[in-house]
From TrEMBL:
Signal sequence residues: none
Presence of the UniProt keyword Transmembrane in the record: yes
Keyword Transmembrane: yes
Biological process (GO), any one: phospholipid biosynthetic process
InterPro entries on file: CDP-OH_P_trans (IPR000462), CDP-OH_PTrfase_TM_dom (IPR043130), CDP_ALCOHOL_P_TRANSF_CS (IPR048254)
Record-given protein name: CDP-alcohol phosphatidyltransferase
Length: 254
């Protein structure tokens, strides 16, 4: 099942890996590979990318960061083609993402001349950007009967779906709330009525998709191969101002 009905799909700049992800998912659907196995693969790809950043192998780092992004889409695609969505996979994916994001930014700090404070603030900015994108996207998905394993408001542990254990869901949900709760609350405080407004136009969602993790990783990969490692952290810190710009546009027009 696609994330949005055809008439509401927009050009998602962060989702460039989706066609390859579908190929991967279709090749695995009749095997013993599960979406969680694919999630583990993207974690490994991300860790290899981080190692390559630290060692200065920027082309290989870029390759593995983009591979991580593709596999990050493939686990969800595999869940859809096998019709086996799970909250375990949904929360494991998110927890892995935020931990890898932190390690990626620390590795960039290690090789650049940015201060540790810039690194911390840039990471917080990165997560706020991604949270706003996910917030608006999930609103659309819920409004138009998209994938319902993601919720606009993550307030309590959901009931485990068939084939998964409630204990696993509860544990991963607890980690999710610990790691993402402050960002979710911040974005909700800034735009608590977004779900009550009009449907977001396609051009708006395409613009906000620059906050998607896939696009963020692509930008990091490009800057690494161009030897612009010293501007990566300042860029993501500065780009955080667009959170307020997009929220302002949403409140004014939609």
């Amino acid at each position: 099942m696609s994330k949005l009905p055809k008439e509401h799909k927009f050009i998602d700049l962060s989702d460039y890996g989706r066609p390859i992800a579908r190929v991967i998912a279709n090749s695995l659907k009749n095997t013993s590979f599960t979406p969680i196995h694919v999630t583990i693969c993207f974690i490994i790809a991300g860790l290899i990318g981080i190692y390559c950043i630290i060692k200065g192998y920027y082309w290989f780092a870029a390759l593995f960061l983009i591979l991580k992004s593709i596999l990050d889409a493939a686990d969800g695609e595999l869940a859809r083609v096998t019709q086996k969505p799970s909250y375990t996979g949904r929360y494991l994916d998110s927890v892995a993402d935020i931990i890898l994001n932190a390690l990626i930014f620390l590795s960039v700090w290690f090789i650049s001349n940015s201060s540790l404070w810039i690194c911390l603030l840039a990471f917080l900015g990165l997560q706020l950007q991604g949270t706003l994108y996910n917030y608006y996207y999930v609103i659309l998905r819920n409004k138009y009967d998209g994938n319902t394993t993601s919720r606009v408001f993550e307030t309590s542990s959901p009931k485990a779906l068939k084939g998964e254990k409630q204990a696993h869901v509860n544990f991963l949900f607890g980690l999710y709330k610990l790691l993402y709760g402050p960002f979710d609350k911040s974005i909700y405080a800034l735009d608590r009525n977004a779900h009550k407004g009009k449907a977001f136009p396609k051009w708006f969602m395409t613009s906000v998709s620059t906050f998607g993790l896939g696009f963020q990783l692509l930008l990091i990969a490009i800057m690494l191969v161009l030897n612009l490692e010293n501007i990566i952290l300042p860029f993501f810190l500065g780009y955080t101002v667009m959170v307020l710009v997009f929220i302002g546009i949403r409140k004014t027009f939609f």
